Amino acid sequence: MPPRTQRGSGAIRLDTPVKFLKGIGERRAELLERLRIRTAQDLLWHLPHRYIDASAVTPLVKAEVGQEVACIGRVVAKGVVPTRRGLRIFHAVLRDESGVLECVWPGQAFLDRTIVVGQTLLVSGPVRFYHGRQMAPREFVILADADSEPEPLSGGKVLPVYPATEGLSHKIIRGLVDRHLDALIGLSEDVLPEQVRGSLQLPSLQDALRAVHRPASALEAELGRRRLAFDELLDLQLMLIRARTVAKRSRSGVAFTLRRDLTSKLRQALPWQLTDDQQRAVREITADMTAPERMHRLLMGDVGTGKTVVALFAMLLAVENEFQAVLMAPTELLAEQHAATLERLLAPLSLRPELLLGRQSAAEKQAIRARLAGGHARLAVGTHALMQESVSFQRLGLVVIDEQHRFGVEQRAALIGKGAAPDVLLLTATPIPRSLALTFYGDLDVSTLRHRPPGRGSIRTAVRTGAHRDRVLEFVRTEAANGRQAYVVLPVIEESERADLRAATTMAQSLAARWPELRVGLVHGRLKADERDEVMRRFRAGEVHVLVATTVIEVGIDVPNATIMVVEHPERFGLAQLHQLRGRIGRGEDESFCILVSEGPAGDRLHAFAATQDGFKIAELDLEERGMGDLIGARQSGGFDVRLARLPDDADLLDRARQLAMDLIAADPALQRTENQRLRARALARYPRAVELFRVG
Ligand code: ADP
Ligand code: MG
Fold first, then answer.
1. CA dihedral 510, 511, 512, 517 (to 10 degrees)
2. Which residue, judged by its Cα, is nearest atom 19 of ligand 1?
């Protein structure tokens, strides 16, 4: 023990490992590690994910059928009851001063291990009638263990609820944060200039941290969150805008000339007209490519909107300027598919793309590499194999990356680095609302394809319950017997994962037994990539009629003959994810059917989903439903860190952050002036990989 202590907690610093903090020690430090809390700073930044407003808690007797309520009660009885249909339901009876309420968690028998008699729970969800009032909680929080008293919740009080982990209840975490809060806040420095803060009416960093951890009211907590969210958005925008300026300026690109040679030939040879959206995207891309600056553009469009042909125009513009163009896809299957499409579209132009895949023989690859390096091959399609060091191009003018989020920043850079200053076109089939596009793709220009080409069969979406499963399957069988193909998607691979969910392996077995005349395939995430590809190839070739799968089915897979998509347990999937699944069908001329087989009542969300096919609208619904988490998952893997900002609600903050970042970088491009250095340091602390971008010189 050091002889002299500051504030009674030792001389802690923000980077002190948590195990040295009072009340933590080795054992708890290990548990905290699971929540990624390693240092004192991490503890300070372990923020509540929600608040319980005591004034909004309903006494148990007042929870009325048909309402959505939040209640607090002590568990007085519990157990698991099987139903006739084989579903196992976990029950718990809660008691408070007013009375009791039964809570049920259908199919979540495993909660029997987590919830014990004597605990105090906060539950929230709808109340329904089933032999009496019953709540089916959407969410629950263990407020106090069986042997401890919950904190009394008096009127007006707001209780923060922290993400917790087994062995470390949120109550313990709250205690730890609270104990060290003042000391840690005292060590934190506010780098946001006073004047900016004032103009946005945001609290200081210190006040904001206090407000989110110990709010006096829900409003105070919200103001604190907004301040922290602003910082987060500002750091991200600083980095993106800097990235964009560096990309544009550091190396000027090729100013291609529109020779109207190959591009015009392609337009004449196409078997159909480009859609208005496609024409606009081609114009935007052409404008970028003919400008002296490098293109850095994202082409965003739902599956089936026809991104490939737009990319092909860009590729031909490069090729007619005596440059090479390359298209990289995340899997061999997609790369093969692109190569086949390009081959078909380019045949009238007497051009052929090279296809480079990891599984090709060494000799084959060697020959392709030689053609690329020597410049005999003008167009290439491939997978990660393209990024390898041994691959070089004679004169690479354009890089197109499909499903761009499936590649890391470094991987994309590796391919782009194979040209002197190639233009870059990224493709994504995950449309996102504009506000999010600005947040996450602030470093890119964006073109969007909103409408699918005409002449495609429509997709009908139906919502059914488990009671209709037999009829749904009969329909699948009839269609398959008529030569159509179907996907059947389930949320888990095996039943052992979740006893209450139908699983892919079981479904595949039962369908195979039920339909001896049809071939049933199975793909899931635990198969090796080549095994999975093999089944997918057979499905594409029509040798497999019904493909049972988890959500691993390739996003871009194009099997026009597949006209049925059955999704089991659609309630388990986000709307955007369901939309991606639905995008696998409706790719041919015939009408397609997407059938959601829901266990419980479907609810508004599935009906809203069934009513629209607009990916952007669905992205907005999804955003409302689940917050940003999943939508940005893609970019998080690219190292983006946005946890507190909520869009579209914080759109005003985003606009201000973006404007401020642009002003700052316009005036001081590498943020090296004294007054900006702390801002730069913070942005770099959040995005260490951006350090290259801010290097001066
Ligand atoms: P995406 O990659 O955006 O999911 P694709 O580029 O694979 O979509 O295109 C889907 C299908 O639509 C392909 O079979 C393609 O040939 C076809 N297609 C593309 N553009 C048009 C168009 N303007 N009119 C008709 N069919 C089109
Ligand atoms: Mg595609």
1. 140
2. 306
